[in-house]
């Protein structure tokens, strides 16, 4: 078999007479027949463009699906929210992004906020507001404080997924509607002084 090649064509010529390899030597042949041509396919440049879409996953503590869940960004915001809430029940949720108990409890708190739209849930990030939390004597997380109208602070406690009943009981006890002619009390005088001493609110 003899092979003829060009730039893009391979030609194979096959003998019809006796032709065979003997110990690596090729015997000559008289004539050839049956021309087979194989044309190599032309290669064309292929432009491909891949689009990678990266979805930003929301951080668990930033997930507040209910409109009555509000982030508190300063001591003054906390004071203002409590004073402007009137007779509405206010629950202050102290948490830390690195707290496993806070993360595990968060979905249930969101669920309870959805079931109690008349209550206001204020979220305080401990890592971002350590001075505020220390001034309010919050040292254990997750931690909750309940406030309402002229009564001011109703209760304070730490709660986890295992002790969620404590939170639900407090919500049931203090969640009933009430009306008071007196203005909302908000934080205690000692708490206001403590916040002022660390520069979280202005001194009067």
Automatic annotation (TrEMBL):
Annotated signal sequence range: none
PROSITE patterns for the chain: THIOREDOXIN_2 (PS51352)
GO cellular component terms attached to this protein's record: chloroplast
SUPFAM superfamilies: Thioredoxin-like
Disulfide bond keyword on record: no
Residue ranges occupied by any Thioredoxin domain in the UniProt entry: 58-203
InterPro entries with a match to the protein in the record: Thioredoxin-like_sf (IPR036249), Thioredoxin_domain (IPR013766)
GO biological process, any: cell redox homeostasis
Gene3D superfamilies named among the record's database cross-references: Glutaredoxin
PANTHER family listed in its UniProt record: THIOREDOXIN, MITOCHONDRIAL, THIOREDOXIN-LIKE 1-2, CHLOROPLASTIC
Protein family per UniProt: Belongs to the thioredoxin family.
Protein name: Thioredoxin domain-containing protein
Classification of source organism: Eukaryota, Viridiplantae, Streptophyta, Embryophyta, Tracheophyta
